[in-house]
Amino acid sequence: MSNFVLVHGGWRGGWIWKRVAQQLRKEGDEVYTPTLTGLADRNHLLHADINLSTHIQDIVNLIKFEELNDVVLCGHSYAGVVISGVADQISERISSLVYLDAWFPKSGDSIMTLSPEMYQLMHIKGAGQYGGRACPPIPAEVFNVNEQDRAWVDSMGTPHPFATMIEAVQLQGNHLKVKKKTFVLASAWGPSPFKWFYEHLREDPTWITRTINSGHDAMLDKPEEVASLLREAALV
Fold it and tell me: DSSP secondary-structure letter at 204?
């Protein structure tokens, strides 16, 4: 039995992992799909002080207070930065890291410094609608979410805390000591800011790289394939 902790990306919540979680639980695995502070079912907690450190602490605390070890920790999109910070703090509890079409930061990087200028400007402009506290959701169509789910995803999206995008992650390199590290590129959308990470990491023998023919929200488009990739990551 494996312990999976699946961390959602920007504007999303734990709800987005429902299909993948159902697949994994069929095999008797423990699956945790937390919602980060200020988003989705926790959007009533949104305030200007929620930053990247808040979200890292959300996941660190989950793992500590659920007393989890040998964790397969997966982060989608924005959560690539989150899981990097988590694994840097508690690498001894993590057996496998999975970056699912996600940012892979170096110490000192933030979402804003990693993003192309057009996205930086879009987030800054959008944050003005919420007094600088949050950025409005990006339409599901932009991420090539499958057509059947687009309206639903748009209805479920919530503003994302802006300070999480501007705070730089501080890493000591402990996350790179995790025994198994996988990067998965969703190849059926673009232009993707994550392709560069895939191209870079597939040259590194300490990483496993995979592709999945889906839009950015691969857990919706191809839940069975995502579950299979996570099970592969659990085989340490």
Answer: -
Instruction: Measure Cα distances from 90 to 65, 69, 72, 129, 182 in Å.
Output: 13, 10, 13, 37, 18
Dig out the tokens for 68 from the structure. Answer: 């989890």
Q: Which among 42, 94, 102 has a CA at the least distance from the CA of 75?
A: 102
Q: For the beta carbon of residue 70, count every other beta carbon within 10 angstroms.
A: 14
Residues 6 and 72: their CA atoms lie apart, in Å, by 8
Phi, psi of 201 (to 5 degrees): -75, -25
pLDDT tens digits along 133-145:
999 999 999 999 9
* Sign (positive or negative) of CA dihedral 164, 144, 210, 203: negative
Q: What is the pLDDT of residues 61-101, one digit of tens each?
A: 999 999 999 999 999 999 999 999 999 999 999 999 999 99
Q: State the Cα angle at 82 between 216 and 232, rounded to 5°.
A: 60
d(CA 149, CA 152): 5
Q: Check: CATH 1.20.1290.10 for 3-234?
A: no
Which residues are catalytic, by number? 77
Determine the straight-line distance between the first and last CA of the chain, rounded to whole angstroms. Answer: 12
**CA neighbours closer than 13 Å in the CB half-sphere of residue 84:** 26
Residue with tokens 């979402």: 111
Contact in structure between 218 and 102 (CB atoms under 8 Å): no
What is the spatial distance between Cα 94 and Cα 63, in angstroms, rounded to a whole number?
Answer: 9
